[in-house]
Each structure stands twice: as structure tokens, then as C-alpha cells.
Amino acid sequence: MYPISYIEPVFRPPSEWKSLILQVTNGCSWNKCTFCDMYTSDTKKFRPKKREQIEQEIIDVAKSGITTRRVFLADGDAMMLPFNRLKEILTLIKQHLPQVSRVSSYCLPRNLSNKTVEQLVELRTLGLKLMYVGCESGDDQVLSLIEKGETYQSSLLALNKIKQAGMKSSVMILNGLGGPELSRQHAINSAKLMNEAQPDYLSTLVVSFPLGEQRFAQKFDQASLQPFRQLTQQELFKEMETLLSELDLRKTIFRSDHASNYLVLKGILGNDKDALLKQVRLALKQPSEVSLRQEWQRGL
User: What's the rounded Cα separation, in Å, for the pair 276 and 267?
Assistant: First the structure.
């Protein structure tokens, strides 16, 4: 157990399960996305953690003798910190935990608008090598409905800036985010965004609402759209077929293996595009011939 005083709950990408989770902020400074219930508790009010506390926790980890080669900067909004604060934190990690080979962080696209490519290059040389970017969708109508506070263009600008700095990007798209009515345009425009950005990693998960979907669905009602409902299993497969068909990626590692997904898909796009589409189409036409997760297996 790391000698760090966490403000619970703590969230991280699944691939960071071996990493030291270093909380440099608490909560999310935006915290308006209607699909997200991660930072709704009273304990998750946004605030940056004091530099002195971060330094002491890094020193305590170093003194504990626990070795870690990767560090994830939590919570959901570490990249909103100014460049100089991020530089200080990365310098402390490099000084006290010299064995660390990679630092990563969630990244809201807007948080890179006040950071230059040159500054990001400097952060990369200090160890920050991977950004997890929750684009959620490439469709501006869907992005507006979910109050993401981003657009197709703002997401693309951030992803391009990450690439120009020599960092890697891992993008998340949420299946089912537009409901049945906007499903096709959500998939097509999300693929278009990915084709322009060419991220290093692309993952999908199925949108779900553990605390209820009333807040989310309300925006659809206000926009005079059909009442929102979650996609059926077959509708999710159809949306995935559209997404994969429209994707034109060269060497992106693709994963659709989150617990929320009925159908587990893994591959490299574009090499494995045809094989992945074959799996999805089989699930559409002959679901009994495909290994699918049962509802009880999809608990988050």
C-alpha cells in the first residue's frame, strides 16, 4: 500500500492498475458532463493539491522502498494545472523516483489550449508521455447534448498538439451516447475525428448510468429529440459496425474490452479491421455463435 492519503473515490484508466496513483488535484474542474457520475460526491469538490503535500507524498513513497515504474497523475483533471506546477511535480518525481519510466494523466482537450507544443515537449522530457483523452464523441450535436464543453475541433486541436509534442494519446469513445436517433452520426463523426487525429490507442465502452439517466435524458427532451433510451445489444453492435467501417487508422491499438462491452474486440487498426468487422457482423446476424458477456458480467 502506498503511503499516500487519498481523497476517495479514486479513478484511473484500467491500464494503470500497476501504477502509482498520485493525486495532484481532487475531482474535475469542469464536472458538467451529464453522463459522468464520477465526481458527484461531497468529497470530490475540485481543488489542486498543495505542492508541499505532493512533494512529501513522493518522498514518502521513495522512503517506503516500494518500487514503481509508472505514475498516473490523478484525479480527472491534472492537466488543468499550469505548466510550471506540472513541471515542478514531474521534476520531483524524477528526483525522488528515478526508476519511473512513464508518467500519464487524464486530459480534457481544453486544458491544452494554454500550453504550447514547446511546453508539452518539456513535460515529455521530464517523463509525461501518455495522455488519456475522453473525447466521448466526434459529433458536435452529441457533445452539446452531453454538456462536454468541447467540440470536434477542440478535441482535434488537443490531439494534434499531443502528437506534435511526441507524446502518445489514448482516446475514449462512448458507444450509445447519442441514443437511437443520433447513433449513426455519432459513430460516423467519431470515426472522422479519429481518422484525422490518428491516436496511438483507441478504446470504446458502453455508456451507462449507475445513478440513473434522468439528468442525461433531460437534455434530449429539451432539444426536441426523441426521448433518450439506451441502445439495445443489437443496436450497439450496429453502431460499432458503423464506427469500424468508417475508421481509417494506420497503426492504432484498438480495444473494446471494458466491462461494459457485450462483445470484446481487440486489434490493431487498420491491420485487423476486416477481422474485427467480421466479429461484429457475426454478433449481429448470429449472436448465439459469438461469446458475449451476460448482464451480470457487465457490472462496473
Answer: 7
Q: What is the torsional sign of CA 141, 274, 267, 176?
A: positive
Is domain 1-106 in CATH 3.40.1000, yes or no? no
Residue-wise pLDDT for 33-47, tens only, equals 999 888 877 888 889
Q: Which ranges of 75-131 would DSSP assign to H, the alpha helix?
A: 83-96, 117-125
Q: Cβ neighbours of residue 94 under 8 Å, at least 6 residues apart?
A: 100, 126, 127
Domain ranges for the chain, please list them. 1-106, 133-300
What pLDDT does 49 receive?
Answer: 92
Per the omega criterion (within 30 degrees of 0), is the bond before 75 cis? Answer: yes
* E strand intervals along the chain: 20-23, 25-26, 47-48, 70-74, 102-106, 128-136, 168-175, 201-206, 252-256, 265-269
Its pTM surpasses 0.85: yes
The angle, 0 to 180 degrees and rounded to 10, between the axes of the packed helices 152-164 and 117-125 is 50
Please state, in angstroms and rounded to a whole number, the distance separating the CA atoms of residues 82 and 288.
52
Residue 215 pLDDT exceeds 90? no
Alpha carbon distance 73, 128 (integer Å)? 9
pLDDT-based confidence at residue 1 (cuts at 50, 70, 90):
low
